[in-house]
Design goal:
alpha/beta; 24% strand; nine-stranded mixed sheet; Rossmann fold; 2 domains; 403 residues; elongated; Adenine-n6-DNA-methyltransferase TaqI, Chain A, domain 2
């Protein structure tokens, strides 16, 4: 599948999402060293390349993409002096091949595919050597980290890199090791968190990351974090070391006590055993992820009870007092509902939390708050199609006001 002219998406299987113009302009504005030789890895429809040409017209630009680019877009980029290469950036020998043919670059820019690829022993060895966690023996590797590792091999001394990465690549509990690696080996200098709506069709939250690998060890230990405001500039949040930001993400600098979790409070967590399609095919009324938006409030009154004749076919239904949250789907993750009356079965995409009566109200008020929504989103795994695991939900720390 080639990049689409009309759509913001190229190949669904390849996790390709075109960069909005204002994001491309913001990324290029954060470069502090005048680019001379630039490569855009995964050039796609050329938003990053176009923004860089506008800001640095004398730069020599090379665009690489493994998927065909529409002829009209190719012609526009070539008219601007961009050399286009059809090549797979994830090939283990790609950095060496590129450097032998074109030399090392002063600047690398990239919006990599938000997806995974089959693990390769050579690539795994590279990622492990750079300090990236959770790679040994894995069947799949994050494609964005492979792009990043290869970019480092292509960079001149004193060079600079600007990447758009999913937050999940470095700021979730299972990827904190990656944040340390980005600081230690890549010279991470800035993180600019982008609005959730930027890649809404990708169901992924992202950030611009600026790297200057040659900075001294003393200055390398800290980087600056910003929030971008939908094309209206950026807001400085503060300067952090990787360790400090990890503590912030974990909540250790806020009112969190690690011993207080849903599991430690005695809450029972279960998901439905059958898909929504299966339940619908059997004529069983049920609550699915799409149901969260079908009720006028988050306090749900089920009009129809369960059907005794099908009780043995499915698991226990959600009943009065149970709290429901989505298990999958970024567009609905963060929602919460509580059953006020009646009972109904749930699909396998929904968690049912049966909390002790003494803590039920506190847990509900937390999960249905903005803070609770952010807490759920922080637990989500997956680069594009996000999901929450039973273990993460049961073991994640809760605020001290609960328990």
């Amino acid at each position: 599948m080639q990049w689409s002219i009309e759509s913001d998406r190229g190949s669904a299987d390849a996790g390709q999402f075109a960069t909005p113009n204002w994001v491309a302009e913001l990324l290029c504005s954060r470069l502090r060293r005048t680019p001379k030789d630039v490569v855009d890895l995964g050039v796609g429809k050329g938003a990053l390349t176009t923004a860089l040409i506008d800001r640095f017209p004398s730069a020599r630009l090379i665009g690489v993409d493994n998927y065909p680019i529409p002829q009209g877009i190719q012609a526009e980029m070539r008219a601007d002096g961009v050399s286009l290469i059809s090549r797979d950036v994830t090939e283990p020998n790609f950095p060496g091949w590129f450097v032998r043919r074109y030399g090392k670059m002063s600047t690398v820019i990239c919006n990599p595919p938000f997806t995974y690829l089959k693990n390769d022993p050579q690539v795994q060895a590279k990622l492990t050597a750079l300090g990236f966690g959770a790679t040994k023996g894995a069947k799949l590797q994050r494609m964005d980290l492979v792009f990043l590792a290869h970019a480092l091999k292509m960079l001149k001394p004193g060079g600079e890199m600007a990447f758009i990465l999913p937050i999940s690549a470095f700021a979730m509990s299972r990827t904190f090791a990656n944040l340390n690696a980005l600081s230690r080996y890549f010279g991470l200098r800035e993180i600019i968190a982008l609005p959730q709506s930027v890649y809404q069709s990708a169901d992924v939250q992202t950030a611009i990351l600026i790297f200057r690998p040659d900075v001294t060890n003393a200055t390398r230990s800290k980087f600056t974090v910003f929030n971008a405001r939908d094309g209206q500039g950026i807001e400085r949040i503060g300067e952090f070391s990787a360790e400090q930001l990890i503590r912030e993400c974990k909540g250790e600098n806020r009112t969190v006590r690690a011993s207080t979790t849903l599991s430690s409070l005695g809450a029972q967590i279960a998901r439905g055993k059958h898909s929504s399609n299966t339940l619908a095919h059997q004529g069983i009324s049920h609550f699915h992820t799409t149901s969260f938006q079908n009720y006028p409030t988050s306090q749900i009154h089920f009009e129809d009870g369960v059907h005794p004749s099908v009780t043995t076919q499915v698991d226990s239904p959600a009943q009065e007092g149970d709290i429901l949250i989505p298990r999958v789907g970024t567009r609905c993750l963060g929602r919460a509902a509580i059953v006020m009356r009646g009972s109904q079965y749930i699909s396998d995409c929904v968690f049912r939390i049966s909390a002790p009566s003494a803590e039920r109200r506190n847990i509900w008020e937390f999960l249905s708050s903005e803070t609770g929504r952010d807490w759920q989103l922080a637990l989500a795994r997956g680069a594009c199609a996000k999901f929450i695991t039973h273990q993460d939900l049961a073991k994640a720390p809760l605020p001290m006001t609960i328990g």
